[in-house]
Specification:
Elements lengths: L1 H7 L3 E4 L3 E6 L20 E5 L21 H14 L5 E6 L1 H12 L4 E7 L18 H13 L1 H13 L5 H13 L2 H12 L14 E7 L6 H10 L3 E9 L3 H4 L1 H13 L1
Parallel strand pairs: 2-3, 2-4, 4-5, 5-6, 6-7
Antiparallel strand pairs: 1-3
Helix pairs in contact: 2-3, 4-5, 4-7, 5-6
Family: Belongs to the AB hydrolase superfamily.
Protein name: Sigma-B regulation protein RsbQ
InterPro entries: AB_hydrolase_1, AB_hydrolase_fold
């Protein structure tokens, strides 16, 4: 069982510290997205990185539509990894949808986590006006999903520079495009639907683990209003606006990302 989960999720463990920090990637990505940030924590922490089933170098044969058709399947991955590694009071750093996956896991097993750190996360991407602004109308999401089905490579090429929002870093935009397009289209499409149609708002009040919300400037996926909403509805949360623009500050602005996480943990 231990070996299968390690292989299933392509676990990578580094670092020298007694406390554990877990880095969880977002949709369309894998653990390599943390390569600029995670090493900065190796002196003080045991650093854990992994790939969700269907992403990166995970065991894609373990993918099941019934399990991964909701956040609970991805949260179960996190809980099984935590059990295998015997984690307690771990720090969970989740980018984008992984912020909500970590929150889901923490509701199930709060003793496993001491802190949740959410980077560009959103409990609901769809607008629910006038009370909630998530950034997308349903027609926007349907259009993206349709593009994925009709022209998967074109979807990746279109989306990467928009979400990165850093025209000077064409290399990172190309990397993100490659990451998107390297996914298996069927799995990526279901993960996208699971992500963009989630509604985690009612569960936010059940999260008891203290959290840090890193809110990027000009983030087309999780706008400022979303960060404000999370802060207002997550108990014991801290909101830190970032100078970094776009949705991938751990790629485009790793120094600022690292500094804000370290400052929060030190406090």
């Amino acid at each position: 069982m231990t070996t299968s989960i390690r292989d299933r999720n392509n676990l990578k463990i580094t670092g020298e510290g007694e406390r554990t920090i877990v880095f969880a990637h977002g949709f369309g990505c894998d653990q390599t997205m943390w390569r600029y940030v995670a090493p900065q924590f190796e002196r003080d922490y045991r650093v854990v990185m992994f790939d969700y089933v269907g992403s990166g170098r995970s065991d894609h044969s373990a993918y099941r539509e019934d399990r991964y058709g909701s956040l609970s399947g991805y949260a179960q991955d996190v809980l099984e990894i935590a059990e295998v590694l015997k984690l307690r009071d771990a720090i969970f750093v989740g980018h984008s949808v992984s912020g909500m996956i970590g929150a889901f896991a923490s509701i199930e097993r709060p003793e496993l986590f001491s802190r949740l750190i959410m980077i560009g996360s959103s409990p609901r991407y769809l607008n629910d006006l006038p009370d909630y602004y998530g950034g997308f109308d349903e027609s926007d999401i349907r259009g993206l999903l349709g593009m994925m089905e009709m022209n998967f490579m074109g979807w990746a090429n279109y989306l990467a520079p928009i979400v990165l929002n850093n025209p000077k870093r064409g290399d990172l935009s190309n990397e993100l495009e490659h990451s998107f397009s390297s996914s298996e289209p069927k799995i990526a499409r279901q993960f996208a639907e699971t992500t963009f149609f989630l509604d985690f708002r009612e569960q936010l009040g059940r999260v008891t683990v203290p959290s840090l919300i890193l809110q990027c400037a000009e983030d087309s996926i999780a706008p400022k209003e979303v960060g404000d909403y999370l802060h207002a509805h997550l108990n014991n949360s801290t909101l830190s606006p970032m100078q970094a623009k776009g949705h991938y500050p751990h790629l485009s602005h790793p120094e600022e990302t690292t500094r804000l996480i370290q400052a929060y943990l030190a406090s």
